[in-house]
Amino acid sequence: MKEKLKIVAMIPARYEASRFPGKLMQDLNGKPVIQRTYEAANNTGLFDQVYIVTDSDKIFQAATEFGGKVIRSKEEHDCGSDRLAEAVHDMDVDIVVNVQGDEPFIDKPSLERLLNVFQDDDASSIDLASLKVAIQDSEEITNPNNVKVITDNNDYALYFSRFPLPYPRNTDIKVIYYKHIGIYAFRKQALLDFYNLPMLQLESAEKIECIRYLEYGKNIKMVETEMQTIGIDTPEDLERAKKYLQSSEM
Q: Which residues belong to the signal peptide in this entry (predicted)?
């Protein structure tokens, strides 16, 4: 019999954002973005608990008002993984799922596939897992806001980049590009290790925190999905999200 893992979802939530300040508190068809994300995570039924983790008074108050479980960060953090590591340090959990607060359209089947890797034959070698989706549009491929990932033959991540990866020097070769979707499932220890390891050169250059795991030899299992998320990085993304939500509720 396979062991029952204790799984929690954590939504790191900063108020400030360089490209779109206050985006998590923007109205998304009657509810703030962070509430939409929290409710979507809860509605999957995949987690023992769902928490918002924030250092913002505004987000903390809003989460309290709509009935969300919310944890106030005690320290200043440079990235979401550090914020989550502090939050789960004393929790009795096995797997911590990082749900991006600015991606309110959560796909339950994709999350189920992500969590299932921790029950597979190679589960003991997996430190964390994440999602990837095939992309073909040239603008998506070249957009630096879309992080690209390449993997080995066993779907373990080799590298992440904002640059088109791989570079198509040989145009006769049909290459599939994969966009990284920033939903992670961590073993608790991998998350705590990340918190105690300093940032190195590659992560600093790309500004992609999951590169730190690779630089320190952690194994990241990538799971392919067909899920097309709407990450809210700009006001234009918010308008797209409003239209998508309106059409899906009709």
A: none
